Amino acid sequence: MDWTKAFRILKILNWTILFVLSSISFMFMGNTFTTGVILGGFLIIANFNVLQRTITKAFGKDGVFGANSGAIVGKYYLRLAILGILIYLLIRQGWVNPVGLAVGLSVVVFSIVIFGVQMVFSKSSGEVA
Q: What is the pTM of this model?
């Protein structure tokens, strides 16, 4: 499976899982918990998309590494620092519940696990992607 197709599937899974988690949280938990799930999901999905864009630019269309590795590492740490600052501000201001935020930040992990399980079962059942 090529990366474009896999990334498209992951994006759909990300938004679907965020919607499901937000809906469940809205029905059973408080406002700050639900806000944490939603904002955590938005933050991590945006972070995942920026990471994907950075890696795609680093490797050309032919898959050859053509970027400066220092710039890639710098962008990684800058993205991580910005994410950390945003998480700190959200928790410090009391706008979100930290547990809800952690659940929201787990959206991409859930998507990758589900995608991996789907790939294992599609390969074992004889399907070819």
A: 0.83
* Choice between 33 and 57, residue whose per-residue pLDDT is larger: 33
Summarised one tens digit per residue, pLDDT across range 42-101 is 999 999 998 888 877 777 666 666 666 777 788 889 999 999 999 999 999 989 999 999
**Full DSSP string of the chain:** --HHHHHHHHHHHHHHHHHHHHHHHHHHS-HHHHHHHHHHHHHHHHHHHHHHHHHHHHB-TTS-B-S-HHHHHHHHHHHHHHHHHHHHHHHHTT-S-HHHHHHHHTHHHHHHHHHHHHHHHHHHTT---
Q: Which residue has the higher pLDDT, 40 or 55?
A: 40
Domain boundaries, the chain: 3-123
Q: Which two tokens stand for residue 39?
A: 């904002």
Q: How many residues does the chain have?
A: 129
Question: Which candidate, 114, 107, 99, places its Cα nearest to that of 48?
Answer: 107
